Predict the 3D structure of the following.
Amino acid sequence: MLDVLQKRRDTACELVNSIPGVRVAVPQSTFYLFPDVTEAMERMGYTAVGDFATDALYKTGVSFCTREHFGRRLPGEERQYIRLAYSGIEVPDISEGLGLLREWIETA
């Protein structure tokens, strides 16, 4: 199972980091990613991460949580983050979904 999760993590990280304006560090051990989407949102004209998440769902079928799902922002916290879980998603589906997300962001 660890090998499966590592392959999913590596695939997801590679694809997320190929999306313009989206960056994520490769975590050591987890089943989700916490990418910074600040620059992508700015390029696309979004100021609210919730609106970005809603539009991503309707336009790409990709769903994710936002930073706000995990509590209030800290003072001075200005970057925009989302949470992408990959534990129950097969590699081809990760590739398809993140490919659709990349296309949507690239064409904005």
In short: Residues 91-106 form the longest helix (16 residues). The chain has one domain: 2-106.
